[in-house]
Design brief:
heterodimer, A: 84 residues, alpha+beta, Glutaredoxin, four-stranded mixed beta sheet, 3 helices, B: 489 residues, alpha/beta, Alpha-Beta Plaits, Fe-only Hydrogenase (Larger Subunit), Chain L, domain 3, 3 domains, four-stranded parallel beta sheet, 20 helices, 15 strands, globular
Chain lengths: 84, 489
Amino acid sequence: MVNVEICIGSACYVKGSSEVVNDLNELIKEEGWQDKVSIKGSFCMKACQNKLGLGIRINGRQLSGVTAQNARQILKQEISQALA
Amino acid sequence: MGSMFSNDSRQFKFDVLTELAAEAYQGEVDEAKVQLMAKNMVSLDGPRFRCCVYKEREVLRQRVRLACGEMADDAAEYNPHQIIQVIDAACDGCTIRKIRVTDNCRKCMAKACMASCRFGAISMGSDRAQIDYAKCKECTMCAKACPYNAIVVTERPCSAHCPVNAITWDKNGIASIDEQRCINCGQCMLACPFGAIEDISWVVPVITLLRLHTPTYAIVAPSIQGQFENATLAQIMKGIEMLGFEKCYEVAAGADAVAAGEYEELKKHMAAGKPMTTSCCTAFVNMMRIHYPKLYQENTSTLVTPMMALARKLKQEHPDHGVVFIGPCLAKKQEAMENSTDVDYVLTFEELLAMLIAKKIDFAAIDAKTEDAPSNYGRGFAMTGGVAAAVQEAAKEHGDGPVSACYADGVMECKKQLMLMQAGRFDSNILEGMGCTGGCIGGPACISPIPQVKARMAMENKTVDAKSIQDSLKVYDFSSVDMFRDKEQ
């Protein structure tokens, strides 16, 4: 199981983190990952303060440089790697 | 949908929140959904508060932006510290401060108005007195002089209710808020009859977090008690948990700890021969910080607000949990967005009610009993006089006292008392500052009127065992919580 945590704190939310939840849900459907990937919400993980882009963690490891625009592509790559 | 509020402007704001909450529980609120909402809520058949359906939809679009946690103005930079915002499409640009002659004027013989005007701005017209606005200095002398009350003074409601002169307007009369001066008290929002001033809302991200089963605590302001008809505090708290919160706590517990802490602080102030001002009302503390910096340094209690005290305690015990405060207050929204905060989001009672309707939760049908309660002194923070009474009780419990207190009820009274204090003419030990008239139960996002809330509170708290502040703190232990506003202190 791959756990994806997405920050819905005020700073990430306004940069579109809740759209990422939507994108990820679609991605899971497309890739047939329903039983392999779980999405969780998270409060601030200090991505905003540390200038890491949107706050997203995969199996506890924090990503950096994610934006609402590139999230789908990065998540696809990262989750595929985690599943491999 | 039925009517909850006595005026159309507040009802419409609430309808938007309710629609949005329902959408957010279904899934992500995207631009397409917002467009559809605008079409459904404002159809060609009405409602019609503005000139045309297009203007009305634009107003709605700005309202939705605010309700989604964005700036009302598309072009404005994101600033979560400015809670109160102007919806410029909704602003009527109403008369600024204008002296007007009404048809009460009888063209009398005495013409006291003309005599009273020191600027020669009044002349007698064919059917009534006339004002030359190029000369008028708006001194209001003529209005006072007229024996028929034929001259009226109309001030814009927003600026008339702002205690800190934070409202200005552009050349078209559209209001704008000076963010350097604004204390986020919300009085202008309550005053505007066009619903053109509103608070930014985080109801959508909170629902998103709950939908994703993120562990979150709700903490409720003491003023929530009695807001809902036929609902006890225990039922309200259980109902809030049913929205998806892991557990709901009373901020009154934090208030007990603040009362005890402020008594300790008061002793130091009294020894130094200076009065202490209370710290629980964020709007009042903002007023001191921005507009009376010297008093802020010298006199303000350095304790955190009860909200922050309880949030710090919960975060200390459960760092992986979020904390959402639910209250009647807009200034608290700003406090939660400051640095070193332990409150993740703030919701108002309006937003809570919108969520309850979206989830079809009825408090009255819930079976719930109170388990353990903070003291009635902590709960008393909800109304004017209650905060000082709790600090006085804390003194009494330590065999100390008597301590004298003065209550500043409402922002205008706060300003007056602070001016007296600045002039060295304040002679009580405590100044209790409440930004809203009546205290938090008069807050801008309250649901029920003050007298009803007071009656319901008194009735319910009669059944609770009388508990001292010290006894409450034995149950709710704050001894390891940093209780100071500036953490390093």
